Amino acid sequence: MDASEYDLKFFHREGFHRRVCRTCGHAFWTLGDATECAEDPCSPYSFIGHPGFRRPLDASEMRETFLRFFEARGHQRIRRYPTVARWRNDVFFTQASIYDFQPWVTSGAVPPPANPLTISQPCVRFLDIAEVGRSGRHFTMFEMMAHHAFNRPDHEIYFKERCAELCHEFVVSELGADARRLTYKEEEWEGGGNLGPSLSVGLMGLELATLVFMEYTRENGELKPMPLTVVDPGYGLERLTWMSKGTKTAYEAVFGEPYDELRRTFSPADSAILVDHARALNFVLTDGIVPSNAKAGYFARLSLRRMLRVLSNASEAPSLTAVLDRVGREIARDYPEIGANREDLHRVVEAEVERYQEAIERARSVIRRQEERVMKEGGRITEADLLTWYDSLGVPPEVATAELQRPPPIPANFFAQVAERHEHDRPETDYTEGTHGAPEVDPTVPETRVEYFLDPYTLTFEGRVLWAEGPWAVLDRTYFYPTGGGQISDTGTLADVPVVDVLRSVHWVLHRLDRPAPFRAGERVRGKIDVGRRRQLMQHHTATHLLNGALRETLGPHIWQAGAHKGLESARIDITHYRPLSPDELRRVERRVNELVRENRPVKSYFELRTEAERRFGFSLYQGGAVPGRELRIVEIEGFDVEACGGTHCTRTSEVGAVVLLGTERIQDGVIRLSYAAGERGVEVVHQFHEWLTDSGRKLGVPIEQVPKAIDHLMSQLETARRGARQATRQDLSDLSERLLADPNHTLSKGDLTVVIAEESLDRAGLMELSRQLTKVPGRVAVLTSTKEGRGTLFIGSSDAHSPAAPILHAVLPLFQGRGGGDPSAATGVGEPGEPLREAAAEARRLAFERGRSGAST
Predict the structure, then answer these.
(1) Domain boundary among 689, 721, 753
(2) 550-568 confidence digits (pLDDT tens)
(3) Quick one: angle between helices 342-376 and 383-393, nearest 10?
(4) 74 by DSSP, 3-state: which?
(5) Which end of the chain is more exposed for a tag (fewer CB within 10 A), N or C?
């Protein structure tokens, strides 16, 4: 940035001098004679033991002091935004106070909730996780206190001069800092598509705040002025509190009693990890994150498991929930919502603790086997393996290395590397436009006026053709719903020509016909929507809202919609949840939804300015993800559920008809899918189920109510038969193994090693059992092949330490273009049958003897 960006009248009026730091090379402004900026590492900490402010303030007192100061100077205090940034589709977490207002407020699309405003925003940044407890000043969650002003060209609130003046007055007059020890360092800031000059405020080695003046956007490498200029300062609550107390680390100053209590059992570093992670988790779990192995849930799991590992180091350690509750009680003094759903938080956390313990038990043997395999191949376990095991098995590096004979060193920034792997994941949203395959529309074509938003019941209409190309047509107005928001499109006709698909592309709704459009721009055409399809989709979409609300009521506020699809035959909703739903929970949810249907509640759809809708309803509006637009279309089921949604809905819940849950499944870690049918389709499904039950009862020779018992009896008989068959098969394979061992055409012995080679028509389970029979005695290798359905299988079993199965298999896989793997005792590959498979088997036998001899000679 040009130096003129920082040349403020305020600095000259107050007597500041511009200097260049001899250490970092940045220019800075000071009232004193400093030759270096007052920030680490240019200036060492000099406030420890000698606080830089007139009196000590705890975090709560510092926050209130800041907010009251700016309220007294014309700013309106606003509540925190969630730490989970659901209003954005580019990030998971709120990482700065300005995130609350990007992109809609900063672009000028919507007005801010207040102007000017002041806020203390909890922020989450997991990339610092490895530094927590080590540096003395890093946190995974911190509070960014701010005062924001949004300036339009025709109405400026204030910008650089007033911002610097307010900051100086707060730090010096309000907190009592020595003005001669302050420095304002010239820097630049960029984020969220905006950038501008900034001033970093330093005192006694510590950066207290950054004053950002957002003026530009970057487009194709060029800077362009923003439609608004924004005052975007960030004051670190934790740093200001630390400066006021002058303690050895920031953790004593910020966390107080909870930190001191943990210090009685844990080291300072471990105590800091526990109290910091507990604070972050109290916020992100309250704001709706469920721990999982993907996306935002991954970071919650990362923090929880790191806490569990620390707690496992002490015999007298408190439980994880006890630590979370202790820290949560402190937070709730200022943020009462943190303790409002404590029981729900406990259920989520306890399920995660169980999952962690199960993962550790499963992983130990996997880790040992993998090291054994790698060492036999001449390699060793690396740091990369530790990262992979953490991601795939959920095993902390300390646990993994304890199982290894030759453990690698654990990287100091291990958890930062883990977090970075997932930092660039992106949230998913239902509100994406399905435009794949759509043509480009002439940009001069006027925008389509969509009428289905407020009137889903008009099914015939007239519109004027604005543009037509091939099978595509754009009208000046339409009631056809385009694919989007998890809902498939309407179908019908335009001028009696079938409409087979409808898409939304930027400003237009495109209708795809089953043939080239027979009309031209300017003609008026009559549209007719398939009434049965529209009604069914309206019922399924409204049922989705009912289900989502009922699930939150029944299971807890941690439930968030993770995806949805509204089709004709059925619909589905994906929810964040930590375990499968029980039959009782499913019955309660289904009963609640149908109760709401019978209550015939109104379902209202209307548009509202984004900031006003967020103020009235909060951020649960974004159940389907971030919704674009200056205005939000609100769908409100009276007294029950409010969401931002662009779909077609019934206007009363009774129109949904019966809602029938069809099934549930876990589709990924932390996400459960429920399938259902509503309306006429729901009734059809119930009739179909009844027919199936009746037919099953007839075939089993029992009444419907006895079908489950009859099936249990039949399954018991089947399992008895299967056990008998397995015993017979095992005996057959035992007999076969004896014949193969006695046949010199199949069995060859050299020294202490015996190799059996054979081709048998068996599946993999059969090959495994035959191998087990052949290698019961030490010093044997079985090389077995089988061909089924055009694929060749090579199974190698070994009870000889010098001829392990997996390395032999890997050596011969290329011979039959095979793929596979295993361990020293058993390995399987699948590839080309016929002669390539036979060549691979012969080479495997040769390698077994070669390795056996080399092993014996050593």
Answers:
(1) 689
(2) 999 999 999 999 889 999 9
(3) 140
(4) coil
(5) C
